[in-house]
Specification:
Blueprint lengths: L1 H28 L4 H10 L7 H11 L6 H12 L14 H36 L4 H15 L2 H15 L18 H39 L2 H8 L4 H23 L1 H6 L2 H6 L5 H11 L2 H29 L7
Helix pairs in contact: 1-14, 2-3, 5-6, 5-8, 6-8, 7-8, 8-10, 9-10, 10-14, 13-14
Length: about 325
């Protein structure tokens, strides 16, 4: 297993290099350019230089006057030393801006992930055990609602009911207006109160797919020969489900859960925008729209890195949940 992990890590480094090269090339070729917009703004000022002069000066200043591959090598040389440059749009170091917003997204996604797993898997297994019953139909309808309805519709509906009609929760933001005057415990409760609606929104739109996946896999396992054998031997139904069927159901679910790692840090752009949460998703969106290459590069490489790590973790967990899977 150790040799397997080392080989995978070395392969991931190679993959990450080419992913970074592709991303950098795309960012250099996209029509939206922060430098061009900045040159237009400066050229429009009275008594200033022309647009062409400003464009040439800014291209030299931001290192855009050299070729794509040479520019990528320079970026890579700085990145391996932990220097990802300054964000053009936010005018601060990329890592500093990232550190200020990432935990808002992480907290939001982590709570939603826990709720998603603890709701979707038990309900999916329950629906499979009671196939074609009222419970199965109810779970299926709930899953399809979460899959079908868009995020903005669910968020708007929740805000209409709990914020406008009932007045229980705030519409926007992560803290209230009197946050600084509260005690540490009060500040925590105030922040948790503001995260209720965003967490519910993320959970509803995410739980349906995992619920349907859990139901489908449990049905497949329950129709297997070893389950019929276990029942024929007279084992209690609870033991058949919990010991034999559930562990085999976990094998494909591990793939999905491992793939959720990038989502923990990737941010939920639509949800963060609707509730005005300064998270990494919304922050990165604004950087990409403005043509901020340093911040966009760091964000997308970070997501690619988490994707590779999540895949590796999923492969390792196969051997944990299934004794038949071993790497020699």
């Amino acid at each position: 297993m150790r040799n397997y992990i080392i080989k995978r890590l070395l392969l991931n480094i190679v993959i990450l290099f080419f992913v970074a090269l592709v991303i950098y090339t795309i960012l250099r070729l996209i029509p939206t350019s922060y430098i061009e917009n900045l040159a237009r703004e400066k050229a429009s000022l009275p008594g200033g230089k022309s647009y062409k002069e400003w464009l040439e000066q800014l291209n030299v200043l931001y290192g855009m006057n050299i070729g794509i591959f040479r520019g990528f090598i320079q970026w890579l040389g700085s990145a391996v030393r932990g220097n990802f440059g300054d964000s053009w749009y936010y005018n601060v170091p990329v890592t500093q801006k990232f550190a200020t917003v990432i935990w808002n997204s992480f907290f939001l996604a982590l709570v939603a992930l826990f709720l998603e797993v603890f709701i979707a898997i038990p309900l999916g297994i329950l629906a499979a055990r009671k196939q074609y019953s009222k419970t199965d139909y109810a779970v299926t309808v709930f899953a399809l609602i979460g899959i079908s309805l868009p995020t903005f519709y669910i968020a708007t509906l929740l805000k209409l009911v709990f914020s406008i009609k009932l007045g229980w929760l705030d519409l926007y933001g992560t803290v209230g207006r009197f946050y600084d005057q509260l005690s540490p415990a009060g500040q925590f409760l105030d922040m948790a109160k503001h995260y209720i609606l965003p967490v519910i929104t993320l959970t509803i739109v995410s739980v349906g797919s995992l619920m349907r996946y859990s139901r489908t896999n449990m049905l497949e396992v329950l129709n297997s020969d070893f389950i019929r054998t276990a029942r024929a031997k007279g084992l209690p139904e609870r033991k058949v489900i919990n010991k034999h069927a559930f562990r085999n159901t976990l094998i494909p679910i591990v793939t999905i859960v491992g793939g959720m790692l990038p989502g923990l840090f990737g941010g939920a752009m639509i949800t963060e925008t609707l509730f005005q949460i300064e998270g990494i998703g919304y922050t990165s969106y604004r950087a990409m729209v403005s043509g901020d290459i340093p911040f966009s590069m760091f964000y997308m490489i970070f997501i690619a890195f988490l994707t590779l790590v999540g895949t590796l973790i999923a492969d390792i967990l196969y051997a944990v949940v299934d004794p038949r899977v071993r790497v020699s």
